[in-house]
Amino acid sequence: MRDNQLNSLIQQMTLEEKIAQLIQLATPFYQGSNYNGQITGPIVELGITEEIVHNSGSVLGASGAEEVISIQKTHLENNRLGIPLLFMADVVHGFKTIFPVPLAIGCSWDLGLAEKSAEIAAREAAVSGVHVTFAPMVDLVRDPRWGRVMESTGEDPYLNSQFAKAFVRGFQGSDLETDKNRVAACVKHFAAYGAPEGGRDYNTVNMSERQLRESYLPAYKAALDAGVEMVMTAFNTVDGIPASANKWLMRDLLRDEWKFDGVLISDWGAVKELIPHGVAADETEAAYKAIQAGVDIEMMTACYVKHLRELVENGDIHETTIDEAVLRILRLKAKLGLFEHPYRAADESLEKEIVMSHQHRQASRELAAKSCVLLKNDGVLPLQKDRKIAVIGPFAQSGDILGPWSWLGSKEQAVQLYDGLTEKAGSSLLLTAKGCGIDTGTEEQLNEAFDIASQADIIVLALGEDSEMSGEAGSRADIRLPEVQIELVKKLKQLHKPTVAVLFNGRPLDLHGVIDHVDAVLEAWYPGTEGGAAIADLLFGDVNPSGKLTMSFPFSVGQVPVYYNHFNTGRPKDAPDAQERYVSQYLDIPNQPLLPFGFGLSYTTYSYSEAKLSGDSINLEQSLSLTIKVTNTGKMAGEEIVQLYIQDLAGEVVRPLKELKAFEKIMLQPGESKKVTFTITEEQLRYYHSDLQFKSDPGAFNAYVGPNSQQGQALPFQLVK
Ligand code: GLC
Fold first, then answer.
1. Residue 42 — pLDDT band, cuts 50, 70, 90?
2. Where's the Fibronectin type III-like domain (predicted)?
3. pLDDT by residue (tens digit) across 456-495?
4. How far apart are CA 551 and CA 616, in angstroms?
5. Does the CB atom of residue 202 touch ligand 1 within 6 A?
6. What's the CA gap between 568 and 702, in Å, rounded?
7. Does residue 405's CB lie within 6 angstroms of at least one atom of ligand 1?
8. N or C terminus: fewer CB in 10 A for the chain?
9. Pocket test for ligand 1, best of 60, 91, 130, 134 (most atoms within 8 A of CB)
10. How far apart are CA 516 and CA 537, in angstroms?
């Protein structure tokens, strides 16, 4: 249906019907074919009528072809004008076949596999009746105390932007109207949700517009440039005004400057939360501020349906404001073909064939192996298959490896670490014991683990955070592993056996007490449905680790926020002429993170040589080529992620010491060398000036190319007018 048809439909709608299109309710409000018209609990609780449910615009969290078809059918029977529901859900990193959490996918630096994971998630979701996914989450993160860092791809604006585009392409494909195997994507959480003070979820976000534009906004804009259909507002304030009431953010920036004319949905309850935020005296004012800010859909609260009518009747808002919101929602329904095909791709028989297929699980296993990061290896890895291995720890036999946003993922169907190792090495050489729980343990468990480990040649520790210890509302002030797990490490260290630690966690941790007591550490994050199999592939060397960190691991939580693209300050500690004391430093810990952005080891080694620039200056039209030779100097084939960083030595405002500008992932056989070439242009040198102009300045720059954000020689060049 085109806009003219939609507008004529809107003209047939009553004001109540229009306003009801703007509410999104969760599944319990709808009872599908057994909907008996009774006023159910949720309806009463929310203080709405069943009339509103019959006229509502979208559903949150329904899935399964049967359920969706049933709800849609009943809805169409009760909706006067036959306007279909939009079905939306959190399909963040997989629908039922769960992929690694996005922070892990980020560490793969593999945009192709990231896109493929979103495509597979969309395929499974679409056949199960989902129309829109609340993903990708592209919030930039610098504070591992925040529980939702696991949902982000990390601390770099450029890399996050590349992943944002890859995820949107995967979810939406190139033509959402004709490709029924895709879903509309919803980029979130707009904006800067990843920067709460204290790393405490939902807390205040305070930063200059310049920093917002330089670091936090690029990935949302990248998602818009990739054609994302929907944007979700963040819970937090942006410069003192909650995002859902922030007219500068939502109208001036998102709609006017960025020309976004898609649907804007509030995050859960964010409209009504304007009251506790202290910018709305009551639900009427909350409704007024949100609709004026351009929020089209109110998720899970009822300020709109209860108060917009009176606001129109009092002349406080124009009915055209509501018509615009309704048109954007109906336009999305039309783009998805719901007026003609209200059940879209929902198909019970196909669902059984497609969801959790072997092919999808294999894709998850491949991406999981590339998302793990080898943080330490004193030669104990890869494991030999003829050695006796003791797998010890709370994650040795745990299905809690899907992460906190895995929604429909089945922990029971996840491949546990012990299963993965058994599949490879057979159970005869495998021993196991829990050793302790996540954060509780007994002397008996410890002693049992000690006995088991004493019978083995090598110990594989399986440690980490319960998935409830990260994700939404999962902020932690202490980012170490729980004490009982540190105790387990110490106890088993008494055996002086080769020991590997595999970590299952949703954030960079303070690894003291672990990394300094074992011979190897593999960061597995929450690796998804095939996690145990992927880790076994890595531990036995069938896959060579290639992942690299996209979020710094702090030396301790006292360093946070710690990130690679920081400013130098006027008293840099590592300046050649730095004083002993009066420099920017801590008295008790180093400034540098324990493990930097871009860091990751391999079972082989690589050398970087013959780095050179094609010239020593460029002007606005020219470009420079930076070439470097990378050699696999070890005995095993591997993938290396070559990174290009640029430093602006003197800007109109202070500039980060380094900024990632490009990367390339190359496969090298043992002994093989490849020449990698990067192109440097003036565009990459642009930044936000104090007047918010985005432009470059003539001056001196350094290019660095290397294996991570800390290594790589400086290659100077000039930008000239
Ligand atoms: C949650 C999350 C958001 C999610 C939404 C719907 O509060 O903040 O990311 O999409 O509710 O579940």
1. confident
2. 640-709
3. 999 999 999 999 999 999 999 999 999 999 999 999 999 9
4. 32
5. no
6. 15
7. no
8. C
9. 134
10. 25
| 285-311: pLDDT as tens digits | 999 999 999 999 999 999 999 999 999
Segment (H or E) for 643: strand 638-648
Rounded CA separation 662/105 (Å)? 17
Q: Is the CB of 472 under 6 A from ligand 1?
A: yes
pLDDT for position 39: 55
Distance 605 CA to ligand 1 centre (A): 42
**What pTM does this model have?**
0.98
Closest residue (by CA) to atom 8 of ligand 1? 267
Query: What is the predicted pLDDT for the residue at 45?
Result: 82
Q: Is the CB of 190 under 6 A from ligand 1?
A: no
Q: In this predicted model, what pLDDT tens digit does every residue of 569-615 receive, in sequence order?
A: 999 999 999 999 999 999 999 999 999 999 999 999 999 999 999 99
- The mean pLDDT of 535-543, rounded to a whole number, is 98
Strand 606-613 vs strand 623-632: parallel, antiparallel, or unpaired? Answer: antiparallel
Cβ atoms of residues 510 and 557 within 8 Å: yes
Residue-range domains of the chain with CATH: 604-719 (2.60.40.10)
Given a cut of 80, whether residue 33 has pLDDT beyond it is: no
Confidence label for 407 from pLDDT (cuts 50, 70 and 90): confident
State in Å: Cα 134 to ligand 1 middle.
7
Instruction: Supply 535's token pair.
Output: 């880790």
SS3 464: strand
Cβ–ligand 1 contact at 54 (below 6 Å): no
Task: Give the residue whose CA is nearest to atom 12 of ligand 1.
Answer: 90
Ligand 1 pocket member 35 (CB < 6 A): no
Alpha-carbon distance of 330 to 86, in angstroms, equals 9
598 within 8 A of 109, measured Cβ to Cβ: no
CA–centroid distance, 628 to ligand 1, in Å, is 44
Residue 343, judged by CB atoms within 10 A of its CB (0-12, 13-18, 19+), counts as: middle
What residues are labeled active site? Answer: 267
Closest C-alpha to ligand 1, atom 11: 268
Per the structure block, which two tokens stand in for 392?
């010890």
